[in-house]
Structure prediction request, 361 residues.
Amino acid sequence: MKTIFFIIMIFGASLSFAQDIDTDNNDAEKYSKRFAAVMLNDKWGFIDKTGKEVIPLKYDYVGDFYEGYVSVKLNDKYGFIDTTGKEITPLKYDKAEHFYEGFACVNLNGKYGYIDKTGKEITPLKYDKAEQEHFYEGYVSVKLNGKYGFIDTTGKEIIPFIYDYVDNFEENIACVKLNDKYGFIDTTGKEIIPVIYDYVDNFEENIACVKLNDKYGFIDTTGKKIIPLKYDWVGGFYEGYVRVELNDKYGFIDKTGKEIIPLKYDWVEDFNEGFALVVLNDKYGFVDKTGKEISPLKYDDAEDFKEGFALVELNDKYGFVDKTGKEISPLKYDLAENFNEGFALVVLNDKYGFVDKTGKE
Prediction:
């Protein structure tokens, strides 16, 4: 988030020129290049690049432009104006979110609904809660009488209000919760994964982690168990492999469920740059994707590989190993940092310096 702030003295009056630019939002950034929100005597409006006042300074609050429209507040009521200053909705709402994919969520008297860019209310303002304020893949979840369902961009209720919680649709699949159990539905409301699990994660590459009776495994989008629900804990997939725990021991499996790294370690980290940090009997080392230990598990501490090298510690001294397990420099430093753009910060006898990837200071 970048904030621009100017104070300009004009004829003895203080003019605050301020605009928050959400640099993660291309639309807001685009309009911020054309218009700037300005305040004078506690009233807000907009000027263009030449300093011309394009929207009168009469509002108590203004937001950012999204999709050509901005929410404004006057006398504790919200509405929307376009880039010419035309009010496309009456300023009558108690709350108004910005436009996204052509629609905006509004609130009046504690009830929620949605409007389009003409200002038309596409749904009655009757919902108790808008769990997600914007449509995703053409649908949005809303709450009515304590239960959640979905509406589409026409305002039609496409999923009945029967669930205790629902998540966004992603690739036409949404997670739902009912009676403390989880499953998945499609956009027709069909339960494609039965609502039977104690926990589910979102699908990634058509695979989702699920939990049932305190055991974890993975299913595909048809509900087929592709990795048996037998593990005490599982992580997420990184570089094609996932950490798993069984009987207090850790290892790795691939997406077919094959155990590629034996479950024998006291702890493991995710694969990074082709290698994983492992711990056994309080000693650290690394394995490759075949399960081969590239270095003896002898270090007191270690960190993941960065730029091809890993920081290791032994007997309170630090150094680095490469991906063959070779120590590129003696473990002699009192402190050290990971490599960054080819160099690593090291400390010896309260003196600071850098080493390169050959270990040369």
About this structure: The longest strand covers residues 2-10. Residues 26-32 form the longest helix (7 residues).
